[in-house]
Amino acid sequence: MVPLLLTGFAIVLLAAAVQAVTGFGFALVAVPLLALTNDPRTAVVAVGIAGMLMSIMVALTERRYARWRLALPLIGASAAGMPLGLLVLAQAPERVLLVLIGAAVVGCAVLIWRGLRIAGGWPVAVAVGVFAGSLSTSTGTNGPPLVAAFAGMEMAPREFRATLAAVFTGTGVLSLVGFALAGQLTGAAAQVGLVGVPAAVAGWWLGNLLFRRLPTGSFRRIVLAALVASGVLTAAPALAG
Hints:
Distance between the termini: 26 Å
Shape: globular
Strand content: under 5%
Largest sheet: none
Helix content: over 70%
């Protein structure tokens, strides 16, 4: 178990550093790599645990800038989609989960690459929230749909980050409650997730140090290409088997 925990620490460290440098990618990096080294259910739940601290820190420090009238309804909409995601996580065979995680990572990477903006106001935002909630508890990759919806609302950068962190904090807490109620909060997932908490803090600190030293645009393209590759590698063995 110790080698798996050390591997989990290294993966979360890398994912948090990528998030700090590029502004995205924590779950997209961590979930497929943890799914390959552990199993998909452990990966989804562990990333939910490890990512909570970063979301809470940003949400607290930036709370004055969050658009709470948007964040709270989106958290509620996400909660409505979580039971479907939990059903998929609990009932889908492991091979199917690996394919879903791989497809979600590739799809989300392409969405970010293309800079997709989802416009349409509140009804569309709520629908995106439901979809993001189902992703949160099935593949752990709920961020990009919310990012696309927020981009369509043309928020100021600080409002954007603060509101997104507020939504992630709320949906993260609800996801963990859902995992526990559905019996998915296993000992292995808890161990990897808790080991990932200090890794996330260290990775965020390291990423911030690298931020001014790396050509962010080039690094972003490399990360997106790597995400597509990791998604394909995650799904390929399950498809081939």
